[in-house]
Give the backbone structure.
Amino acid sequence: MSDSVYYHQGCPVCGRMLRIGVRLLGQRVYCQHCGGGFRATDETLEDDEGAFRAVSQIQEDRIEMLLERASEGIVNSTKDGQSQEEDVAQEIV
Ligand SMILES: [Zn+2]
């Protein structure tokens, strides 16, 4: 089915619009009009990739925030433990 998916890219040699199978993306293709070779790239798909990177960056930030909260929770529980020790120390004194 992927063979039937195409996108359009202008030939950098002759300027004509070409229909290129998406499975050829990133590969070297040849213009059917002038025979010029060029690399198949789809700006739209590259934009999607950039958006995906932005989303993954947001997810990383969220993970960092969660890790920060988790470490804060650990610090708080450690403080509780210390305060309990202090109470015990006061009882001894
Ligand atoms: Zn061409």
Notes: The mean pLDDT is 78. Residues 17 and 40 are 12 Å apart (CA to CA). The pocket of zinc ion is lined by residues 11, 13-14, 16, 31, 33-34, 36 (CB under 6 Å). Residues 2-41 form one domain.
